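Support request, please re-run this one:
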Amino acid sequence: MTTVFDPLRMSAVSLDVMAVNRDSAQGVARRQQARLALLLDAALAGSRLYRQLLAARTTARTPLQYLPVVTRGQLMDRFDDWVTDPRLTLDALRAFTADPSRIAQPWQGRYMVWESSGTSGQPGIFVQDAQAMGLGTNQQVLLAQTVGWPAGAAPQ
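Re-run finished. Output below.
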C-alpha cells in the first residue's frame, strides 16, 4: 500500500470529519479557524508565491476574508513558486501525467497527481498527499450521506 492511502491516517481523518459533523456552530468555526491557521502557516513557510502575495502583517490568525483572491491561472503561471514542496515542479508533474503507464501511481510515492481538462479556461495540475486525500474522500462520503445519494452514485 502506498503512503497516499494510509489506513491509519484515513481513520484519523474520518473520526475528525465525523466529529465536526456533530459539533456546534462554534465548534465548527473553531475547527475551520484551526485548519486555516495550519494552511496559512504552511503557505507562509513554504510558498514563495504566498509570501509575496500576503501582506507582511498576515499571520495564521488572519481571517479568510482578508486574504487575496488568487485565480487558477495565477497559480499555474507561478506553479513552482506556489507549491510548498520544492520537489513539485510543473514540468516534472506534466511529464508524469502525460505517461499513461503512471495512471493511479503516486508521484514520488507520496502524492496523487491529476490534470484537469481546462473547461474553466485554464487546465490545472492537482496534487494531494495522504491528509488531503483522506479529508476529501471523507467529505465526499459525508456529503453523499447528507443529501441522500446512494453509495457509489455521483451528483448530476
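The CA atoms of residues 96 and 106 lie 10 Å apart. The first helix runs from residue 7 to 21.
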